[in-house]
Amino acid sequence: MRRQYLTERLDCLSKWLLPPTCVVCGGNSKHRDLCHDCALALPWNDSCCARCALPLAVTAAYCGKCATRPPPWSQAKSPFVYDFPVDSLLRQLKFSRRLPNGRVLGELTAEWVASFDESKPDLLIPVPLHWRRQLGRQFNQATEIARPIQRRLNIPISERLCKRSHYTPQQSGLSAGARKRNLRNAFVVRGDVSNTHIAIIDDIMTTGSTLAELSKALLRAGAEQVDVWTVARVTGAGLSYPPPVREGDKET
Length: 252
Ligand SMILES: [Zn+2]
Ligand SMILES: [Zn+2]
Known about the structure:
- The chain has helices at residues 2-17, 36-40, 64-68, 86-96, 99-114, 131-137, 141-153, 176-183, 209-220; strands at 76-77, 80-81, 123-126, 162-164, 187-189, 197-205, 225-233.
- The chain is an alpha/beta fold.
- It is globular, with a radius of gyration of 18 Å.
């Protein structure tokens, strides 16, 4: 409690000393690092499949794929479609360590999830990076997104419960089949998750193969329910190729 109180006080102090700047337009903002106009113009994922968050053109509960072959998790939430400027904000977070982007996108994800008024998970698990990749990047973008969700919704994060058991090549650039083969038994659960409701946190969902593999590992370990919360969902058109890597996007 004391720690949360101190974190909130420090947050107020830093906002007073350094007023928030919008991560999209660079203008001044009143409450957080995103101004009102830019927030309204974001590519909100208003009509989507309840199971995999794929945007749907027609009003339906599930997409065709989930109706026939549902994923291992129970529900997916993704407030945005992977489109401008969310795609740029996520690339800047991942490749240029723009941490305010993670903070603001995590806050928006928390508010989006809370708007459904459903039962809260017991635990947040950011998709873990292999220690070699984390050493190179020095941070995990999924954890940067999970932290504001933890603060907003008061749900604990566990970064140590799951780990990557082997080093896998970057998923982007691989076909859906290669992604699956690449990820087989990629995660190990190192603790008791029996009867827990878990939300896995990540930046984007493309084919969902990483999220499916981690969900299966958690369900095998006894989790009662696994949900998936990502900032952005790559649309159907984007599924046949990886999100584009633009100039300046490289591992640091
Ligand atoms: Zn703005
Ligand atoms: Zn679906």
